[in-house]
């Protein structure tokens, strides 16, 4: 085989490789985890304060999957007089599956979310609430199988 044929083969393999990489990159989605990230960044001091307040209690929020429902248990002292709050399940692979659950003022330390309401996958769970004017915040990754 002559050196001219080798150069042509190398160029063809290189162009095929680049074409394949362009094809793969065009199939990649570029979704942002949070659509309103700029507004959230401006309010980040509230998140810091909420994390500090929860950490000062020495207790934390627990999220469990018992097969039929997802249980979100709050420290009882943080839910005595709930002003406002929300539980957000943000699916990292598909923003269409994100779920937003407002927390009502019903003083219950255990929220149960039906498993049929949320699709399977890896989520970032963000929980923020305010009890008697004191903000709290908890964030964790949670896998639903």
TrEMBL record:
Keywords: Membrane, Transmembrane, Transmembrane helix
Highest taxon of the lineage: Bacteria
Transmembrane segments: 7-26
InterPro entries: FixH
Pfam families, alphabetized: FixH
Name under which the protein is recorded: FixH family protein
């Amino acid at each position: 085989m002559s050196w001219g044929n080798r150069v042509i083969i190398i160029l063809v393999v290189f162009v095929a490789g680049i074409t394949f990489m362009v094809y793969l990159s065009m199939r990649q989605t570029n979704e942002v985890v949070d659509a309103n990230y700029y507004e959230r960044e401006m309010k980040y001091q509230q998140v810091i304060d909420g994390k500090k307040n929860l950490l000062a209690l020495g207790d934390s929020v627990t999220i469990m999957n018992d097969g039929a429902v997802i249980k979100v248990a709050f420290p009882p002292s943080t839910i005595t007089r709930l002003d406002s709050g929300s539980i957000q399940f943000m699916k990292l692979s598909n923003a269409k599956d994100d779920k937003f659950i407002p927390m009502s003022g019903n003083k219950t330390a255990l929220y149960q979310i039906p498993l049929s309401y949320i699709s399977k996958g890896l989520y970032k769970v963000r929980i923020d609430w305010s009890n008697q004017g004191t903000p709290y915040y908890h964030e964790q990754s949670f896998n639903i199988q």
